[in-house]
Amino acid sequence: MGAPVTVGVVALDPVLEAGTRTTLLACPDLTVCEPADARVAVLTVDRPGPAELDMVRATRALRHSPAVVLVAGALASGDALHALAAGARGLLPRRDADAPRLAHAVLAASRDDCTLPPRLLEQLLDRPADARHGAGGWSDGMLSDRERSVLRLLADGHETAEIAQRLAYSPRTVTTVVHDITQRFRLRNRAHAVAYALRAGLL
């Protein structure tokens, strides 16, 4: 049997952090340490909104690039897409995050495997490919046909003027579409938008 996997805990709420830490301490295959020194980080949140997804990205950017397991009080299929695109390697509803399940998710993440609850996986697989961005907020944020067309051409290396010509839009419209995507999903630039869409299965 190998050495225990090092795991850190990240949470915006100190009560959630303490509870998660206590659960992990009950797992003999894990050693709890600081997130910056951990092989896997467990992020415990109420729901994965923009601030929480920024935490996933920031944790992945730590010196050792720990794998991230996200434990959330509420997890809709749209939330799962965003969490996976942000870099999470495992997702667990908080109600299911007992010691055995949490340990399983952490150990899987340490091997670069991805774990999802079966119910959530079914929802993701059943989600229509042409889902649209609706008024329901962050978890409903998919791409329109126009946004998808622009991102596909960006992914192929085309500049704004070329995209406008191919799609019969003005260059300003193309710029606005890209800006809207980066703002909605809190992305840094065009390249990040393309990478995000590909990782989330939106293209």
TrEMBL record:
Recorded coiled-coil stretches: none
* GO terms under biological process: regulation of DNA-templated transcription
Q: Which GO terms describe its molecular function?
A: DNA binding
Q: Name one Pfam family in it.
A: GerE
Source superkingdom: Bacteria
Q: Where is the HTH luxR-type domain?
A: 136-201
Which PANTHER family does the annotation name?
A: DNA-BINDING TRANSCRIPTIONAL ACTIVATOR DEVR_DOSR
Give the protein name, as stated in the record: DNA-binding NarL/FixJ family response regulator
Its taxonomic placement starts with: Bacteria, Bacillati, Actinomycetota, Actinomycetes, Kitasatosporales
